[in-house]
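Appendix B. One record, verbatim.
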Amino acid sequence: MIRWMQSRIPNHQIELLTPTEMMKRSVLCFAVVLLAIPTMATDGSELSLASDSWPPFTDDPPGQRVAVELVHTALERAGISATTSVVDWKEVERGLRTATYDGSAAMWRNERRERDLLFSEPYLENRLVLIGRKGSEVSAARISDLAGKRVAAVGRYAYGDEIKKADGVLFVNGRNDQDNLDKLLAGEVEYMLVDELVARYLVAYQPEEAALKLEIGSTVLARRMLHFAIRKEIPGAEEIVATFNREIRGMLSDGTYAEILQVGWIRVDVDGDGLLELVALGDRVGERPPGTVYDVFGEIPEETPIEEQRVFVQGNIYKGWDAIPDAYKGPTSQMDLSFKRGTTLGTLKF
């Protein structure tokens, strides 16, 4: 092979190298090749994601799919395009095993999945609350308090030990929240479990129907963290996940996150110091402290009056409502639910 190469190279171009020089050249060439290999995050490729139908988190457009919108937007901000196919969950898992799909926008993390998938930091928390018919008692502190009661729940989703170990509860599997609401209103079950976000949408978007026919509990009975996940062998997988995490943090602080979820004010640790901040949607906070706030990850740990809580506005943190400059106060349309992003929510039929 060497003689073949030399026979085709003019004598004046042949360069004799020492072993050390040859090693340096080889390392340099290898590095150049690595830099030339495109990754999913930089070469314009499209991530093919998959989820099942799970409104309001995942669905086909124009259905309710806030988790998909959050993930797609975060990736888009990083210059990564993505599509999500909505199929049966068994098909999602099969597609990930066979490399038909690159990942999923909405997945709960467990040890089995971690063998093949790389997970983002949690970007949303699923929290189950109780809903009953008007006049029902919805103050249960734990699922087991519902022993002897028929409780409708979406049967395909495992919310952990809080549900599995609830002895005596008569769970009735439903296809989705609409199916469970139909069972509740028809008297087939005493209660239904829904995500806290769904309950919030009912109150915000269908207040008359909800107030007339439902009792909505406020105690969280089960919780799970939601992640974006991709297959480990995807080129640039770690870079994609790291970039996604960074963009989600940016979306939490600049209002994009709240806009997609259509929740107005959110409460989250913006600067990573362990303290929670109220984050307004937009650059104006209104004339008075917010009446309701969506806690992105769990409940506020201390009983601080809302007017004394830290507020994040336009890159600055103010310790209490009175500390916010008047330039940021005044009439605002941020709570009129006229959002640019997101999907139409609160569309359960009574």
